[in-house]
Amino acid sequence: MATTTATDANFNEIVEKNGIVFIDFWAEWCGPCKRFAPVFEAASDQHTDVVFAKVDTEAEQALAGAFGIRSIPTLMVFRDQVLIFQQAGSLPAAALEELVVKVKALDMEKVKAEIAEHEKRQAASG
Fold first, then answer.
1. Catalytic one among 6, 30, 72, 103?
2. What does the pLDDT look like over 88-125, one tens digit per residue?
3. Cβ neighbours for 44, distance < 8 A, ≥ 6 positions apart
4. Left if phi > 0, otherwise alpha if psi is -120 to 50, otherwise beta: which for 80?
């Protein structure tokens, strides 16, 4: 599966309608972004059960700003609409592959329970 373009208009739909979504925030002028692009594209071809989306930070400045993107490339990963990973900088192919495998293996019921417990503690202390 090829990568898809994420925009302010379709971002929420992409995250809501797909179980696992990897998002690459990039720009045309960014050297590290250009080096990461083929790695990201290859992963999208290999993992057809995962959505790989790209956000052009020049064209989608409001969207990049909403996520506080300050450095590119930045990789974000959502699983079941939960942001579970965010990191600036490009990843080598082996590290991206390892991340995909780990994201697929996550027990999301456990993750959501931990989030709920954390929010409960925050509410009680604040």
1. 30
2. 999 999 999 999 999 999 998 998 889 889 999 888 88
3. 1, 2, 3, 22, 50, 52
4. left
Supply angle C-alpha 79, 59, 10, rounded to 5: 40
* pTM score: 0.92
Evaluated on CA atoms 41, 45, 47, 52, the torsion sign reads positive
Q: How far apart are CA 117 and CA 97, in angstroms?
A: 30
At residue 115, the 3 state secondary structure works out as helix
Class of domain 4-125: alpha beta
| 30 labelled catalytic | yes
Helices and strands of the chain, counted as H and E runs: 5, 5
CA distance 113 to 116: 5
What pLDDT, in 10s, does the model give residues 7-40?
A: 999 999 999 999 999 999 999 999 999 999 999 9
Pick the catalytic residue from 33, 43, 63, 64. 33
